[in-house]
Amino acid sequence: MIRLDAVVWLEEVGKNDLSTVGGKGASLGEMINIGVPVPGGFAVTAQAFRDFINRAGISEKLFEALKVDVNQETELHKAEKAAKKLIMDAKVPKDIEDAIKSRYEELCKREGKQVFVAVRSSATAEDLPDASFAGQQETYLNMRGAEEVFNAVRKCWASLYGARAIFYRVEQGFDHDKVNLSAIVQMMVDSEKAGVMFSSQPSTGEPLVVIEGAWGLGEAVVSGSVSPDNYVVDRQTKKVLSKYIATKEIMIIRDPKTQKTVTIKVPAKKKEAVVLTEDEMVQLAKYAETLENHYGIPQDIEWGVEKNKIYILQSRPITTIDNTKKPAEAAAASGKAILTGLGAAPGVATGIVRIITSGRDLDKVKQGDIMVTKMTMPDMVPGMKRAGAIVTDEGGMACHAAIVSRELGCPAVVGTKKATSVLKDGMEITVDGGKGIVYEGRVAVAGSAKPAAVAGATGVVVSKPITATEIKVNVSEPDRAAAAAATLADGVGLLRIEHMILGLGKTPNYYIKNGKSEEYIDELVKGVKTVADAFFPRPVWVRTLDAPTDEFRAMEGGENEPIEHNPMLGWRGIRRDLTETEHFRREVRAFKKLHEMGLTNVGIMLPMVQHVRELRAAKAIMVDEGLNLENIDVGIMVETPGAALTIEDFIDEGLDFVSFGTNDLTQYTLAVDRNNENVAGLYTELHPAILKLIEYVVENCNEAGVKTSICGQAGSYPEMAKRLVEIGITSISANIDAVATVRETVARSEKILMLKALRKQD
Ligand code: PEP
Ligand code: MG
Asked: Is 662's C-beta closer than 6 angstroms to any atom of ligand 1?
């Protein structure tokens, strides 16, 4: 049914009003109508939006402005700018403006105070009312006052023409003209405690409501920045089956002065305190049941509690349950439980305990053993693949051990707090990863067959999540090309040629001085070709020679290498290329040959750059050698604060990509020699200064359409990968053995970002 009103109360709409209030508005209305406590509010209808653009006389110009090639970044952004300007500058008909403002005033009257509201976008397509445009438009939180609310509605309307939204519609074949936007104006819930819940066990589909909760606003739980309490309620009996009380370090609250959300430390007495009362757990489980019954499928629900009142903020289907598997039988065991924690990955396994303190003791874990550790690290994945089950001291449902175990189909109990002290090497234990219980000895547990995928200790099911951020791989030895390509990486983010050259035993100068230039070029071509062939047509960024003088000295022809006080700060990388141009020219000739062979995926990356002059001079030599820079990717490593802080100059000069060499960027920014163990404790790529430099470069490059990547060791660290995704990097290049883990981390981080955007919008 199409409604003609400009505004409607949320309780006046339901699931049949998609074309009026979009998916979000319809779902909120529906929940209110089945008695679920949803914060009240109203929707500015899609028709009001349409009416506005028609009567303001901007529709023709608007849709004309959107007719661009969306694959051209600059055109896309021009279209965004033009369309948003039209919306923001046009006069909104007075009756529509009045309807919005007076409905807000009515809402305040109804509540007896001037309320804070969230203004969220709910887009809808005329032909396909249930099309989902989730996460593509904006949300404005903590709005108060009729004028502020009206402005936020207008900004939501404009956000229908954000670059991402325009691109998506064109890609999906939606006509811009047929997509409208309803703005949902809903009261904010200032939660004292909040979280998420699943109406069915998310990995097995059992009728158990799994609730996760922490102090403050739900964002801390959704983003994974706090370890939440975890409660399990039997959906049929409404009995609380288990309570796991986490140590909650931080909380996100609305600052009463600024009204902005801020992250603060949880007061000491609340850190270890249980967040929900049993009554609240049961009440939440009832709402979960109502929603699952109503929608007919398990739901992922966001909730909050303000002044002892529970609110349901969002409900959407759970997508992780594999319905082809029967729910596991309830496990009932007779043995002695010696440890409990979170059942992070279902399945039961008996085996011998192997306590692991770092990736170095991984060899201890033999096929079927139980890996016990404080928390798993990416370098422990090979051992995790052999393990029959995994038990950790730390972690919640979203920790590394939990995610990887689920992916591997390996039973896991996480967050036991004391597994590494209670369990001893060589003990036999039984792990129930569904219930989160560890038993002494071999215990028969009903329904204990490992899920099929767990046969995976020998035949691991490897899947490749699709990531928007490209995942690449670093290669140093051409004979590792096949192994690198087998990671299914999106390209090579760094091909180091030093190893190839140092392996020859003779310096480039030796070849040149002895009239053997062609031999040298052929060696380079051979090495690079092996890798470029293995990846074609995926890009392979080859770094020009970056060996410090001390490494050359031992080679034939290196006798006269200068002795430098600090080779790390010395004559290496681009600075050597530009003063000793003869060897650089040979490299360029090798690149030219490779392109002539059809290996057009080979790109050139310049190391140790610190001033734009260096890029300019290197490009001039390439052109002089006959390279057509139109057809070949040229980029720089960002390894010096100098390059990072003047990135605009490089962009102006023209380059296709930058790649962060964080191994060096860290040592040069923090003044910490990367090879000196006396200061090794100070060496961290996660130092805020490094992150700031990276963020600055990525922002500038993203604006200019220059690709950004990382090829330092830190790209193989999940924590860094997560940060880089948040910062907006375009690709991450990791070591061969870290590609899968980084890809997983990136996929998860991207999902968290999307969920955050989605939940903000809802
Ligand atoms: C770096 O500095 O991060 C890098 C990748 O280069 P290298 O380790 O070879 O100096
Ligand atoms: Mg370096």
From this structure: yes
Q: Which fold has domain 193-317?
A: D-amino Acid Aminotransferase; Chain A, domain 1 (3.30.470)
Phi, psi of 359 (to 5 degrees): -55, -20
| Pocket of ligand 1 contains residue 664 by CB under 6 Å | yes
Residue pLDDT, tens place only, 697-715: 999 999 999 999 999 989 9
Ordered by start, the domain boundaries in the chain are 4-187, 193-317, 337-440, 470-761
Best residue among 542, 545, 639, 667 to mutate for probing ligand 1's pocket (most ligand atoms within 8 Å of CB) is 639
Quick one: which atom of ligand 1 is closest to the CA of 639?
2
Residue 546 Cα to ligand 2 midpoint, Å, equals 8
Regarding the beta carbon of 715 and ligand 1, being less than 6 Å apart is answered no
Q: Contact 381/452 with Cβ under 8 angstroms?
A: no
Closest listed residue to residue 179, CA positions, set 194, 202, 195, 161: 161
Q: How many residues does the chain have?
A: 762
Which residue has its alpha carbon closest to ligand 1 atom 6?
A: 661
Pairing mode, if any, of strands 602-606 and 540-543?
A: parallel
Alpha-carbon distance of 341 to 434, in angstroms, equals 10
| Among the bound ligands, the one closest to the CA of 713 | 1
For residue 428, what are the CA distances in angstroms to 338, 352, 401?
A: 12, 5, 21
Range in 219-223, 272-276, 525-529 the model is least confident about: 219-223
- The residues, any chain, with a CB within 8 Å of residue 61's CB and separated by 6 or more, are 86
Q: Does 388 sit in the ligand 1 pocket, CB within 6 Å?
A: no
Q: Which two structure tokens, joined as six digits, stand for 464?
A: 């490749």
- Strands of 334-410 (E only): list them: 337-340, 342-345, 348-356, 370-373, 389-392
The identity of residue 426, as a single letter, is G
pTM (2 decimals)? 0.46
Indicate if ligand 1 lies below 6 Å from the C-beta of 762.
no
Q: What residues pack around ion ligand 2 (CB closer than 5 A)?
A: 639, 661, 664
Dihedral (CA of 651, 654, 655, 661) sign: negative
* Domain 4-187 annotated CATH 3.40.50.720: no
Report how far ligand 1's centroid is from the alpha carbon of 663 (Å): 5
Strand order from edge to edge, sheet including 470-475: 707-710, 657-660, 634-638, 602-606, 540-543, 492-496, 470-475, 731-734
Query: What topology is assigned to 470-761 in CATH?
Result: TIM Barrel (3.20.20)
Dump pLDDT digits (tens) for 255-314.
888 877 788 999 999 998 999 999 999 999 999 999 999 888 888 899 999 999 999 998
CATH number 3.20.20.140 is the correct assignment for the domain at 337-440: no
Cα(442) to centroid(ligand 1), Å: 49
**Among 171, 162, 174, which Cα is nearest to 136's?**
162
Would you call 145 exposed, middle or buried from its count of C-beta atoms within 10 A (0-12, 13-18, 19+)? middle
Q: Which residues are catalytic?
A: 400, 711
Distance, CA of 366 to CA of 381 (rounded, Å)? 13
